[in-house]
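User: Fold this; tokens only.

Assistant: Input:
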Amino acid sequence: MLGAAAALLAAQLATAQTLPQVSVTGKATEAAAGLAGFGDPPARLPMQAVSLSAERLADSGIDQLSGLTRLDASVSDSYNAIGYWSQLKVRGFDLDNRFNLRRDGLPINGETSLSLANKAAVEVLKGSSGMQAGTSAPAGLVNLVVKRPLADDATTLVLGAIQGGTVEASLDHSQRFGANREFGLRVNLAAARLDPTLRSSKGNSHTAALAADWRVSPDTLVEAEVEFNRQAQPSQDGFSLLGNTLPDARRIDPNINLNNQPWTQPVVFDNTHASLRLQQKLAGDWHAQAHFGIQRLRTDDRNAFGFGCTAENNYTSYCSDGTFDLYDYRSENEHRDTTSLDLSASGPVQLAGLRHDLTVGGLTSQFKGRFQRLAYNYAGTGNIDGSAVTPPAPDLTGENTNLTERSNELYLRDRVALGADTTAWLGLRHTRLHRESVQTDGSQATAYSQGITTPWVAISHAITADWLAYASWGQGAESEVTPNRPFYANKGQALPALKSRQTEIGLKTGTQRVEGALTLFDIRRPVWNDIALPGFSDCTLDNSCEHRADGYARHRGIEASADLKWSGGGLFASAQRLRARRESSADASLNGLTPPNTPQTTLKAQLRQDLLPGLQALLGLQYEGRRYATPDNGIPVPAWTVADAGLRYTQGIGNQTWIWRAALDNLSNRRAWRESPWQFEHSYLYPLAPRTLRASLEVRL
């Protein structure tokens, strides 16, 4: 017996000598949420997804969802302003902050500043998400994985500073209790004084989170958690075209904030999240889960908002001389509440001589948006050097839109073993929607109900033990709410949901040394557009146009990604080539054009390499190709490349591990337009952040 054990140990040691050296500094591992829903390792799934750990985010200095654009080529900016909520594109499509975000798999509203202080990872599912969500934009889902109590006791302290004056601190403590350590507790606390290099944007943020679990028995696990976070910070106003001219980004100070009036107030986000989850093992390798979650958001949304140029009868950009119309926007005491309950069971069955791994479940969710009257009033003339001062105009002159949305979803997922190397994957979700909207003065009440079924199918084949080829096809559905702007005749109204579809072909590999994928995709999505009503030539006057479905957007592309590991280092890299075009629009001049703010080529890479024992160099590279500032593709925005560099030093002091990080973002102080979002029929421009030094100390006790 001892001889057999010794032989087994020797074989394991021999195997270990062939693997790449990996430095392990943590005391325990975090569990991923498995956004895809099948429970398999990502390398074995017929879809593209990436999981970004808290440690990887920390190495890159990322504390907001908008920072994901630095790590993955398929993810880019979609109107990301300091002090406001994050908005992302995936595969060239804007994620819908109302429907494309999840928290441990449950739907949440992303129209707020979401804290990453108590998140173990951020997962990004790319492509059709109709199998996972009743309504969502077709590009995929983003899931926040909450930190839960660990198997081993652990405490981590972090202190950090960022050039400009930002100072931050956090505590992460996990501990188990009880005779058999059946009770677990995890506490996360974080606070920051926000003072970025962007002027007129000082603020603060706070997060307090508590997660607990109770291992009632080997078959039963109860988990509960609650999170409170608050951010108060003036938001960043965008630049714009000057008439029909793209301003030279090299001559624009990226630290200027046009939201700098004496009456400017911070945007305030107060967020509460809580959930209760029960996991139960059943007979025959079946598992059941009940997961209940709530989200309660309160927002004071305020901004000195630049929009158009009345002097030149131009409402899509700023004036050619650098001035613009400035509005006093205030929508205070906004409430967005989400409540959801997911019930599911999963396990194996034998049908028709084949093994099926089934998941069946139902999700019910409700969203309520309750608002007050708002101010959106002309306050005077601003200019792009930030020197203009105007009087405030805070009168509540406009109506807002209250929303109530209910969704009941039934879903089925099935993995069928067709042979030793071939698997069929099936997904089906039926969603019953009910949407209501009404203006805050009681007018323009609308309501509708709709049933939608979104299928998804895939087949995969293991070419070798480490290589998987697959093909998939799926549908998604999404709904739209007309923006609450005066020129819409149907402002604030919820519109019927429409379907998108995606076809994807991929090749994947996953070993301890290499994870990689090569993917071709084709997505066809309905587009909502602003159509001038009879008697109007455009949408510049009140009640002059209608927001409605108008043709399609078709995005076809190729993605490549690799996560390489070698002794003392590694490379995490991805690239995307995208062909995005408008089709079947009522405005024939738009057909065949590229949507604004959509780069054709993107490349992201993060390299790490040990220099000395404990000392590792980090190098990041971001390239985003040319994009367009306007829907007519008349004004191109040049490509840009940014490099970041940093050092990470890990040292052991007794039983403690100290990790020192220092980095320079935008190493060459490159000046360029980072993105060119088209919002409310208006062109905006956001510059790259200037060269910025950041440093932190992480102590693991």
